[in-house]
Structure formats: C-alpha cells, structure tokens
C-alpha cells in the first residue's frame, strides 16, 4: 500500500472509530511503528487528527477540532434531527445568520424550505448550496478563508456583520462546560460573537457529546442564547445545571 493510501485508510478508520491505536495500525498495515508515527505526525500537521499517547483521535481537545471534511462525515442522523428542530424556528420572510460548521451547513442548506428568506453566512458550504437557490437572498460574508473550518473569518467578516441585522443567528459550538460555551479558535469565536450581537435572537446548536467539555476560548454564557438545540439528553449533571438556570433546551427527536 502506498503512503497516501495508507494515510487515507487511517483517516477512514478514525471517522468510524474516532480513535486509533498505534500498534494496531502498525499490525494492520504491516509497517513499522516509526512509519505510523510519521503518518500520524503529518496528518496532525495537516490538522486532520490529534496525536495522543499510543495513537491518535479526532475528538476535540482544548485547542483542536477536526477538519471540516472529517466532521461532515460524522453524526449525520443527529445533525439532520437538529437541523429540522432549528428549522421550526424560522418563518418565511426572516433574515437568518448561519455560522461555520458541518451542523450549520446542513441547516443552511435546508433554509430553502422557508423561502422567501434572507441568509447571512460565512459558511462556504452554505454559500455553495444557496448561491442559485430560488427566493433566497444570500449575503455571503467575505474574509480570510479557513480550510479547516470551511468558512471566512477575520476583520472583514466582523466588520460586515457590524453593519447587518438579522432575526435569528444559529451558532454552533464544539464544547460546553457548566453554563458556558467554548471554542478552540479565536477567529471563529469573534465571528460567532459578531453574529450574536447582530441578531435579535441567538440559538445554540450543540451535539450532546460536547457537553462537559471545554476549549481554549470562552465563546458565550448559555444565558446569552434564547434557545439551545441538541440531539440527545446531555449527562444528568449538565441537564440539571441547564434546568436550574431556566434555559430552554430542545432535544431533537425523530
């Protein structure tokens, strides 16, 4: 097996299992541990995985989130349910902001069901899906493109958002600890905050597995959101904290 084929096979394994063991990989591909080390080093350098003791993972860490291409392949059923729940908050004629992320990309593409609608987004996947959609006014935010997040960020993005206004902002996050949402990228945090500031209402989208985790940068308190949508009930202690705070939590079901 050629090197690139082996590395693609490693990523395929990670998409399904989320973590791989170095010794298992060496046995599977009949190569040395050092060869696997080099593979994992190069894949980590490309931002596709995070090396851990004895192997690698695509699970988020305080400073790591897997590449958009990887996240787009994960949890498709959960994302679809969350998108349907979020779509119920949208009415024809609204102006809606959609941030970066694979979950938000699925939601953004579904907004055609609510046309006529105006969509403001820095999400390249949403821009691609809606650029020719009938009865959708698309405002694509410029900025510096990030392949990792498949979106646009930076001063240009934030300045554009400061001049716009929306009815709803859909904000996704990879980590919630206690009553606060976190993100590992400061540019993404600034863009998300700018969307929240420019919208009458903000809705948080978060996979239930991301509760009980933190990341490098604090994004916002959960009390800053008018609603929180997740795909399944979070751990009892996390659910209890949300209930005590009187926050609106929607669990998206079939």
UniProtKB/TrEMBL annotation:
<keyword id="KW-0804">Transcription</keyword>
<dbReference type="InterPro" id="IPR036390">
    <property type="entry name" value="WH_DNA-bd_sf"/>
</dbReference>
<dbReference type="InterPro" id="IPR014036">
    <property type="entry name" value="DeoR-like_C"/>
</dbReference>
<dbReference type="InterPro" id="IPR050313">
    <property type="entry name" value="Carb_Metab_HTH_regulators"/>
</dbReference>
<dbReference type="Pfam" id="PF08220">
    <property type="entry name" value="HTH_DeoR"/>
</dbReference>
<dbReference type="InterPro" id="IPR036388">
    <property type="entry name" value="WH-like_DNA-bd_sf"/>
</dbReference>
<keyword id="KW-0238">DNA-binding</keyword>
<dbReference type="Pfam" id="PF00455">
    <property type="entry name" value="DeoRC"/>
</dbReference>
<protein>
    <submittedName>
        <fullName>DeoR family transcriptional regulator</fullName>
    </submittedName>
</protein>
<dbReference type="InterPro" id="IPR001034">
    <property type="entry name" value="DeoR_HTH"/>
</dbReference>
<dbReference type="InterPro" id="IPR037171">
    <property type="entry name" value="NagB/RpiA_transferase-like"/>
</dbReference>
<feature type="domain" description="HTH deoR-type">
    <location>
        <begin position="3"/>
        <end position="58"/>
    </location>
</feature>
<keyword id="KW-0805">Transcription regulation</keyword>
<dbReference type="GO" id="GO:0003700">
    <property type="term" value="F:DNA-binding transcription factor activity"/>
</dbReference>
<dbReference type="InterPro" id="IPR018356">
    <property type="entry name" value="Tscrpt_reg_HTH_DeoR_CS"/>
</dbReference>
<dbReference type="GO" id="GO:0003677">
    <property type="term" value="F:DNA binding"/>
</dbReference>
């Amino acid at each position: 097996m050629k090197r690139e084929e082996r590395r693609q096979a490693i990523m395929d394994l990670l998409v399904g299992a989320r973590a791989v063991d170095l010794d298992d990989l060496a046995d599977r591909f009949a190569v040395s541990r050092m060869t696997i080390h080099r593979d994992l080093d190069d894949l980590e350098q490309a931002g596709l995985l995070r090396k851990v003791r004895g192997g690698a993972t695509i699970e988020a860490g305080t400073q790591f989130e897997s590449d958009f291409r990887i996240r787009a392949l994960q949890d498709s059923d959960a994302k679809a349910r969350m998108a349907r729940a979020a779509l119920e908050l949208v009415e024809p004629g609204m102006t809606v902001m959609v941030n970066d992320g694979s979950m938000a990309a699925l939601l953004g593409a579904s907004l055609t069901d609510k046309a006529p609608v105006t969509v403001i987004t820095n999400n390249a996947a949403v821009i691609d899906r809606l650029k020719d959609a009938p009865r959708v006014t698309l405002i694509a935010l410029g900025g510096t493109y990030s392949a990792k997040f498949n979106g646009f960020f930076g001063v240009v993005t934030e300045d554009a958002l400061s001049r716009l206004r929306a009815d709803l902002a859909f904000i996704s996050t990879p980590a919630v600890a206690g009553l606060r949402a976190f993100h590992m990228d400061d540019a993404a945090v600034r863009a998300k905050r700018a969307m929240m500031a420019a919208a009458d209402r903000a809705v948080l989208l978060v996979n239930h597995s991301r509760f009980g985790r933190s990341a490098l940068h604090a994004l916002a308190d959960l009390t800053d959101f008018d609603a929180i949508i997740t795909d399944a009930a979070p751990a009892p202690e996390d659910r209890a904290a949300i209930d005590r705070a009187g926050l609106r939590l929607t669990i998206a079901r079939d």
